[in-house]
Recover the amino acids of this structure.
């Protein structure tokens, strides 16, 4: 991502060549002010505050101020959200920002799994984000939320961008769904058909697939149950038939319920006459 210039008119920022090997030279008034501050404030309760202000002033004089923000790895998070979270201001001293605290604050945002923040002297802040990968759309008591691969609800915004994800239903569905989806990834065709995961009592799943196939899984080991479903489908090709329900709750059998046959309208009319 290209760096974002945080100041619309850069001519208002006094820029000086950054040369850390060169001694910082201050105008006479600044030298006098710094000397007076050091002499008068040393050993007083106000010294830490004055020293901090002096440090910020020296940074501004050296041109070490924030002009550009560079954001990498963010698809759901935008620059404005980063600015507001870190309280970034154009022209602020670059070392005023604690990069460790900034990282911790970014990682409190729902979409952010990991973050890193570093300064790039003389005037740039580089932020790298690893976002959560949304796994499904959970309909809980407090409304819909996106669930990450970690099993945690991570966001309630931008839901319309993720309507293609499977729906999760049930209180513990977010925590248990990642293991099921990971097991189902062994059959990409089935995973692509998955529309809805319902977590039912007795710790079992009811899955709904396109085009209208319901699968009843047994309680217990989710990975084992999904592996059995994949094996049954490969052997019997049930998803290619007019099947409404595939029931795997009995260990030694597969119970299949077909869709009811609908008579053509003409045949039904002849039968009525």
């Amino acid at each position: 991502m290209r760096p974002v210039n945080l100041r619309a008119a850069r001519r208002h920022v006094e820029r000086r060549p950054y040369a850390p090997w060169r001694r910082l030279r201050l105008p006479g008034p600044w030298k006098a002010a710094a000397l007076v501050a050091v002499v008068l404030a040393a050993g007083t309760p106000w010294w830490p505050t004055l020293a901090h202000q002096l440090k910020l002033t020296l940074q501004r004089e050296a041109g070490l101020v924030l002009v550009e923000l560079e954001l990498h790895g963010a698809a759901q998070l935008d620059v404005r959200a980063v600015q507001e979270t870190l309280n970034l201001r154009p022209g602020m001293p670059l070392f005023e920002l604690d990069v460790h605290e900034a990282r911790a604050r970014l990682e409190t945002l729902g979409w952010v799994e990991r973050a890193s923040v570093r300064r790039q002297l003389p005037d740039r802040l580089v932020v790298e984000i690893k976002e959560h990968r949304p796994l499904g759309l959970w309909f809980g008591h407090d409304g819909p939320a996106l669930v990450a691969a970690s099993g945690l609800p991570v966001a309630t915004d931008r839901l319309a961008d993720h309507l293609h994800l499977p729906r999760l239903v049930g209180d513990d569905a977010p925590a248990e769904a990642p293991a099921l989806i990971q097991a189902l990834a062994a059959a990409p065709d089935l995973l692509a058909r998955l529309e809805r995961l319902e977590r039912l009592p007795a710790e079992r799943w009811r899955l709904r697939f396109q085009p209208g196939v319901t699968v009843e899984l047994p309680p217990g080991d989710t990975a084992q149950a999904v592996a059995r479903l994949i094996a049954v489908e490969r052997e019997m090709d049930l998803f290619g038939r007019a099947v409404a329900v595939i029931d795997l709750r009995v260990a030694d059998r597969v119970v299949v319920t077909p869709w009811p046959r609908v008579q053509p309208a003409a045949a039904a009319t002849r039968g009525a006459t």
Remarks:
- The helical segments are 28-41, 47-62, 79-86, 99-106, 173-184, 188-193, 222-236, 265-272.
